[in-house]
Amino acid sequence: MATPVFHRRFLSELPGDPDSAPVSREVRNALWSRVQPTPVAKPELLAFSRPLARQLGLEEWLAGGDAARVLGGNALLPGMDPYAANYGGHQFGHWAGQLGDGRAIVLGELETPAGTCVELQLKGAGPTAYSRTADGRAVLRSSIREFLCSEAMHALGVPTTRALSLVRTGDGVVRDMFYDGHPQREPGAIVCRTAPTFLRFGSYQLPASRGETDVLRALVEFTLRHWFPQFVDQGKDGLAAWLREVAERTARLVAHWQAIGFVHGVLNTDNMSILGLTIDYGPYGWIDDFDLDWTPNTTDAQQRRYAFGKQPAVGLWNLARLGEALLPLCDGDERVIEDAVRAYQTTYGDEATRRFGDKLGIRFASERRDDQLLQDLFDWLAAEETDMTIFFRALCDAVTLHAAPTTMPPACAEAFYGSPPQSHVDAGVAWLRRWWQRTRDEPQTATDLRTTMRASNPHFVLRNWLTQRAIDAAHQDDLRPLERLLQVMQRPFDDQPEHQELAGRRPEWARHKPGCSALSCSS
Ligand code: AMP
Ligand code: MG
């Protein structure tokens, strides 16, 4: 294997903290603090993403014996120069000040065989300057969740940070999972995540909030230089165009989440990637029954700020906070924000329309009242517990029926969690007839529509109960369910009949089980 090459752009081009002690502190006028991972007792590689390893040129290394030491934080490869990033954020609508990488440590920027750079970041590798009162560690259950979902989202085509590896540390980590005064010792783990950059909205907000305009400017120039070169050296117009681009990426990302039923769970501004990636998998979840008000996050159970149906509006709110942070670089011109907000709204509308159009096999046209067709479907799905993923997947076959259905096709009825009243079933059949008739106006054949629809309506999504089952097994040292999920979720649009059980409705036992229906932030 060629020796991996690491770059140090973040460290050499941005202002940093002269102190490298892993001691909690306020760090001003700096965007990073050097820190060494804290070694663990017995690092053991439990799983890795083969497609990502291949893409990074690390497959051979990962399959060899030595990777666990590096990915567990006990050794460094030549050229690695680890650091934690400094950033702030709005948490649940309130400015929280400095947050930073409290348990994430970037090992280095790896040069990939394609000539690009990705950051390798260990999550759970020990305390940093930003750990505040916490331990800098992560437990196995939350690490499995981040590892699996990163790779599942990528396979679904959703922009996301990736997960290269999952290492069990051999150390215990104490967590009070329900915040009810019953802390327990759990197995510790470390995920190695990758992204071109982990910069977040909060990275820009922190220097702005402190009046550190030079730091902010350096960070924005750095961002443009490496990831948005089309906007470099164009002054205020360039900044405005860049913010619009971030707005559009964020809008497209959120529309994608809505189309597949993904709920992030903690859309604080420190969890919003500047590249428009899904980032920071915590108490996320997948809706089973179509419920716009659902949130997996127990911390948000009252307010429901980050519930499924609120994500589009929250993305916009977060974007406006980013825009405000950039005002010092735009002569305080609020039109820059207004422009970006408009771009977000337009892009979100277009993208959601396109995605749901693909899911239904129709090109939306307002004169055909397609918006109403979709709204009526949402209302119907929400009226009785109905599985979103199963229902949309069933439409892929229903589109090839030779006549409009007169009864509920069995594959659609599979989506019902209970036995809905006949009037509800009849309303569903009436909707299906309207939809089926509408698809006949499309220029493509039904077979071609089916192909499009199957590429937009996944058969497999990483349902919460599936992951929880894999976690329970891993706690018993059985890694087969984890490995199976990883494999199956790499091909979410394929039928994979031998794994049909993983495409079923949420079983009744999972309805209220922790980890399946509700998750705390404890991780
Ligand atoms: P999150 O909710 O994961 O986005 O984290 C919010 C903030 O808390 C970030 O600054 C994290 O780095 C920090 N944090 C969360 N868990 C820990 C931990 N176990 N140790 C240190 N910092 C943490
Ligand atoms: Mg975070």
Describe the 3D structure.
The chain is of the alpha+beta class and 523 residues long. The chain has four domains: 6-201, no CATH class; 203-358, no CATH class; 362-441, no CATH class; 464-510, no CATH class. It contains 17 helices and twelve strands. It has helices at 9-13, 50-56, 59-63, 67-71, 140-156, 201-209, 213-227, 235-260, 311-326, 335-360, 370-383, 388-398, 410-413, 422-439, 446-454, 464-475, 480-488; strands spanning 6-7, 32-34, 44-48, 83-85, 88-91, 94-98, 104-111, 117-123, 162-175, 184-195, 262-263, 285-286. The strands form four sheets. The protein has a six-stranded antiparallel sheet with strand order 1-7-8-10-9-3. It has a two-stranded antiparallel sheet with strand order 2-4. Strands 5-6 form a two-stranded antiparallel sheet. It is globular and about 70 Å long. The mean pLDDT is 97. The protein binds adenosine monophosphate and magnesium ion.
Compile the SSE list and pairings.
Elements: E1 6-7, H1 9-13, E2 32-34, E3 44-48, H2 50-56, H3 59-63, H4 67-71, E4 83-85, E5 88-91, E6 94-98, E7 104-111, E8 117-123, H5 140-156, E9 162-175, E10 184-195, H6 201-209, H7 213-227, H8 235-260, E11 262-263, E12 285-286, H9 311-326, H10 335-360, H11 370-383, H12 388-398, H13 410-413, H14 422-439, H15 446-454, H16 464-475, H17 480-488
Adenosine monophosphate binds at residues 99-103, 130-131, 134-137, 266, 270-271, 280, 282, 521.
